[in-house]
Amino acid sequence: MKPVIGVTPDFNAGDRQEWGGKEPTYFLRARYVRAIEELGGVPVILPLVANRSARRRLLEGVDGLLLTGSGPDLDPTLYGEKKRYAFPVVAKRRSSFELDLVRLAIRNHIPTLAICGGMQSMNVACGGSLYQDIPAQVDHVLQHRQTTPAVRLSHSISITPGSLLNRIVKRARMQVNSSHHQSVKAVGHALIASATAPDGIVEAIELPTHPFFLGLQWHPEFLFERHLLHRRLFQTFLRAASRRPSLQPSPARRRNNS
């Protein structure tokens, strides 16, 4: 059977004029859903429920988790820093939901793929921190917000030997696109940096003790149709999800449903 993949949406809490204005609104770029569907998964967009038992219940119904990107940044207070720059921040409802889902995914061995802002959430959920603005905080860096379309490759990355990413792409280096102004600063607890850009910016993180827990700073959903290595990322994620036993409802829930 095709694996069911829970996909996190972006969220306007009523302060983003371009996405629903004052009306709280879920929204999601279709390219994430298309990548999952075209490569053999069943995408399900997850509502940002506030109750933790409801979040766990959502995860009982999926085989894998895809954390998507976001225009705004995570609030720096979530990783113990003061906000230094004037960039908008992710709605608290979304950040609370995603950080909690990351921790639940680790605890329940749920295959998880995180992209761009999703990778940053993954790192912060594990106790890591971020550069709030790469150009302002890091000297001699590449242009990480490419001016060409995202379907174009932008720069190379070096991949850690023996890492999950290395085993997937079977390469020591590969080309990626780039559309971010933040990145991992301190890597989260138990995570490893499995790829870096030529300027040292972390481009991938993973949890070696987990069956599939991989964060990518680039956007493979723009590239999978034309580039085999980026297609492999989704295919390997979907295979991992298809092998995972489903979470079982708690005994209390089973009694209540009987």
What Rg, in angstroms, do the CA atoms define?
Answer: 18 Å
Helix segment count?
A: 8
Helix/strand structural class: alpha/beta
> What's the quaternary structure here?
single chain
As a percent range, the share of helical residues equals 25-40%
What order do the helices and strands follow?
A: EEEHEHEHEHEHEHEEEEEHH
Global geometry: globular
Instruction: Characterize the main sheet.
Output: 9 strands, mixed
What's the mean pLDDT score? 93
Trace the largest sheet across and list its strands.
4-1-5-6-13-12-11-8-9
Which percent band covers the strand fraction?
Answer: 15-25%
Low-pLDDT segments, ≥5 res: 250-255
DSSP, total strands: 13
Distance between the termini: 26 Å
Task: Describe the overall structure.
- The chain is of the alpha/beta class.
- 29% of the residues lie in helices and 19% in strands.
- The strands form three sheets. It has a nine-stranded mixed β-sheet with strand order 4-1-5-6-13-12-11-8-9, sandwiched between helices. Strands 2-3 form a two-stranded antiparallel ribbon.
- Helix 3 links the parallel strand 5 and strand 6.
- Helix 2 packs across helix 3.
- It is globular and about 45 Å long.
- About 2% of the residues have low confidence.
Topology:
Layout: E1 4-7, E2 10-12, E3 25-27, H1 30-38, E4 42-45, H2 52-60, E5 64-67, H3 92-107, E6 112-115, H4 117-125, E7 130-131, H5 134-137, E8 155-159, H6 164-169, E9 173-176, E10 183-184, E11 192-196, E12 202-206, E13 213-216, H7 228-243, H8 251-257
Parallel strand pairs: 1-4, 1-5, 5-6, 6-13
Antiparallel strand pairs: 2-3, 7-10, 8-9, 8-11, 11-12, 12-13
